Amino acid sequence: MILLAGQALLTLFVVMDPVGLAPLFVALAGGRPAEEQRRLAARAVRVAGGVLLAFAFFGPALLEYLGISLDAFRVAGGLLLFKIAVDMVFAHRERETDEEKAEASLRDDISVFPLAIPLLAGPGAMTSMMILTAEARGVPGGLFVVIVAALAVLLLAYWALVFSGRLARLLGRTGVNVVTRVLGVLLSALAVQYVADGVVDFLALALG
């Protein structure tokens, strides 16, 4: 259980990257009053939490309904996470398109889009939740551990958004890039592990 908790915390923290969100939040909401920024951050975290919980509870059932094995999803999810990791390492990570950025700049309420989706609950976070909850099935209390880990990371993300201005000034652009790149290296290793586990199980099934 401790191993699962550590894996869930590390995976979700790396994928959501609360530190990397700070300058993005400053760009989107830096000119708004502090109280409004807190309100936007709180709503974004609640919406993202709802999306991730939905994937935690219904994701494995969806895979089963579609006839997709966990091993296949591990490989596909690992490849997706590896792509995200490469973008993080080379500072090319784009969580939204140019069209989405333009639309977000015109919105009064940016909490749902783009903060909650895709900045917090993006494809990587959704994929990670489905893989983690599927793997947690064989661990007593595993689903509870994964959910608590997700809520803990979301709480960290909330405080990172609330103090985004100070965090961005403290680290600077270079500091944020350094943290993001280190997290990208960790995510790439996790992604390779997901792919390796999926391939090994595929081979074991084929040879067995």
TrEMBL record:
Keyword hit for Cell membrane = yes
Q: Which GO terms describe its cellular component?
A: plasma membrane
The record's Pfam families line, in alphabetical order, gives:
MarC
Q: Any stretches that span the bilayer, and where are they? A: 6-28, 40-60, 72-91, 112-131, 143-163, 175-196
Ordered alphabetically, the record's keywords are: Cell membrane, Membrane, Transmembrane, Transmembrane helix
Major localisation: membrane
Compartments annotated for it: namely: Cell membrane
Q: Topology versus the membrane, per the UniProt entry?
A: Multi-pass membrane protein
Q: Does the keyword Membrane apply?
A: yes
Q: Which PANTHER family match?
A: UPF0056 MEMBRANE PROTEIN YHCE
Which NCBIfam families does the UniProt entry name for this protein? NAAT family transporter
Q: In which family does this protein belong, per the annotation?
A: Belongs to the UPF0056 (MarC) family.
Q: Under which name does UniProt file this protein?
A: UPF0056 membrane protein
